[in-house]
Amino acid sequence: MRIYAKFIVAITIFTILVILYFNSKTAINIKSKLLSSSHDVATTSLDNKSESKVSIWISVTKIDRGHLLTKFRKFFKSLIGHRGQCRAIFELNVITDNASRPTVDSVIHEFSKQYKETLLKLVHYDFQDVLKIVENKIEPLKRFFQSSKGSYYSDDVFYLSPALHLVAPISLEKAIVVDVDTAFQSSICDLYNVFDNFTSTQLFGLAPELSPVYHHILWKWRNYKGDKYKTQRYPNLNGLNSGVLLSYLERIRRSVEYDRLISPEWISSVVQKYLFKGHLGDQDWYTLVSYEHPELIYRLSCGWNRQLCTWWKLHGYADTFDSFAKCTEKVHLYHGNCDTPIPP
Hints:
Shape: globular
Number of strands: 10
């Protein structure tokens, strides 16, 4: 009888897990909790209530391509290597695919052994599960801000961040989202503390774009506006770069303004207003929001997203590129966009 009872209990538990798994929204949360509990890397208990938490989000897919593995290794080593005096728990939320996950895990465990003093909690999110949850929100972004299909910025991974509040646990209030081609030079805890500088209206924090890409995109609009806009620089029109993003999730969830700005109607109207032909994914959306509603955006120091790409310097902007790329702030994070090498 005991064996029979155990068999019934096992079947019941298995049935419940199957039901939860195929409920996509529930599945992603249950899955995250189970995986995180089996992948904690720390020298002290993560249940210590006195420790604060920094929630970090990164998308890592198709890492079998060699250059992406190199980037992720540099990113993760810099993240925990520049912990400094910070004693917060680093909750690293990785959105990845099944093929990439073993490689991601091996990198994390390799460097975690070298930096044992870092409190790390690893949480996995399946990329396809995430897409199911956010697809309705990001569809307008893909419609208006996608380059040609098959190109680098056509991948769905470049449209996720504006809908992160739908994926993250409802209890999570703030999150830092970073691209895989970044490397910290300062503690991420210093970046997390920037949330304290947000005004009551700000939902996102981003640094300026350090290339003339939006100056270029707006050429039709500048011509339409007349000689004044053709000859003068307007720094606030240089746009934003989404390689580093502070996302105030709790505010976004209850923001009526956000729901309006993510709608296809609003995006269509502002794209027409600026004669805007975007191709950089979510970054284009943040840039247009900053044009129309600057009160919603906290402008990070360029030092927290020191972009290194020089593509535009070689494509028509040799004489003026340095004026766009200038950043005199202390470098806290390098962003090796355009596959640009990051200084050692």
